[in-house]
Write a structure and sequence with these properties.
alpha/beta; Rossmann fold; 5-stranded parallel sheet; binds adenosine monophosphate
Length: 190
């Protein structure tokens, strides 16, 4: 079983690459952004609360996303592996993930970071906003806020995995298939 954290700022290509990894390796995809948007679409109390923060480009509380991930891990006991996309986004979430993993006798094999600069991210997200229907992709100020949240709260998560000897970086600018080949080369070494 291989469990991978796909890391990078909003617009780095995590969703696109996750889809290709699912097709190739049969991993279960756990995207906290997708799970939160599903809660919003279902009109749950959790979704309503999360929406207030997501609409401002601010992270939702750690307990909320950790609880959702815990449920998903438990409801997929036969998974070939998990690909974590957009989670963990804080060091506290990374610590909780390690605890959840060890409770289930599994572990994170590694973090793969997609590296893309802020100007390119903003461009990509504004283009995505034209088709994704996501309000948070359509407003440049909100995009910059999300990148700021990433830089202040999420970047330290890379150090957390570096400390465990589990960090690899891939250039996230270029052809989608080339980037994918780079990611697979890392995974195949785990
Ligand atoms: P994403 O689809 O990953 O870009 O996430 C969209 C929004 O959902 C983010 O801007 C956050 O407000 C929220 N979100 C998603 N994942 C997390 C997480 N792991 N921790 C906190 N907030 C999150």
């Amino acid at each position: 079983m291989q469990n991978i954290v796909l890391f990078g700022p909003p617009g780095a290509g995590k969703g696109t690459q996750s889809q290709k990894l699912i097709d190739k390796y049969g991993f279960v995809h756990l995207s906290t952004g997708d799970l939160l948007r599903a809660e919003i679409a279902a009109g749950t109390a959790l979704g309503l609360e999360a929406k207030q923060l997501m609409d401002k480009g601010i992270l939702v509380p750690d307990e909320v996303v950790v609880g959702m991930i815990d449920n998903k891990i438990k409801s997929n006991p036969d998974a070939k592996g998990f690909i974590f996309d957009g989670f963990p986004r804080t060091v506290a979430q990374a610590e909780s993930l390690d605890k959840m993993m060890s409770q289930n006798n599994i572990k994170i094999n590694g973090m793969i970071a997609l590296v893309v600069d802020e100007e390119e991210l903003t461009k990509r997200l504004l283009v995505r906003g034209q088709t994704s229907g996501r309000a948070d992709d359509q407003n440049e100020e909100l995009i910059r806020k999300r990148v700021q949240e990433y830089n202040s709260k999420t970047m330290p998560v890379a150090d957390y995995y570096t400390g465990q000897g589990k960090y690899s970086a891939i250039d996230g600018i270029g052809e989608i298939d080339e980037i994918f080949t780079g990611i697979c080369a890392v995974i195949d070494q785990f």
